[in-house]
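Hey,

Quick one before I head out. I ran the complex with adenosine monophosphate overnight. Inputs first:
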Amino acid sequence: MTRDPSWLAGHLRDIPDFPQPGIVFKDLTPLLGDVDAFRFAVDAVADHAAGLTVDKVVGIEARGFIFAAAVAYRLGAGFVPVRKPGKLPWKKVTETYALEYGSDSLDIHEDALDSGDAVYVVDDVLATGGTAAATCRLVERLGGQIAGLAFVVELGFLDGRAKLTDHDILSLITV
Ligand code: AMP
């Protein structure tokens, strides 16, 4: 069987109007539950990251953790969580970013990176890019350098890449 992005895309499920009207939620649980699809996705990201120098892999809460932790293990790199407000127990640095209505924020532990660390950022979905851009700012505020970013799914029509210029970006599936 040929395993490629269109095969992988067959393991996504679209959920209309979740979590709110007008949003088509990309449900990755069928992909996660299929040993071949999950392994293909993790290996494709890890192969991309293996061509770069990476000290730490940052995963974005919550689905990003699943892929980022597996990629970190494969690379032999540390894993760092970027979390939603109120979740991290230690001293943290916060970045706020705009949503369509209102704003949201993300935290990282202030000692999560060493200055100069090369950081690879992983999340499940790139939509408007606000989440990933805020994560890059957190990394840079701690003295880290963005080595690259990877997403399982990119919603190309939202042009999230425009917020991530100058970075090496992999997306396995673009819709
Ligand atoms: P954004 O900041 O707009 O790029 O949104 C990216 C974050 O929101 C990621 O952490 C995704 O998990 C989540 N997200 C945004 N849109 C979707 C979608 N249509 N389906 C699933 N997750 C999404």
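The two ends are 22 Å apart (CA to CA).

Talk tomorrow,
K.
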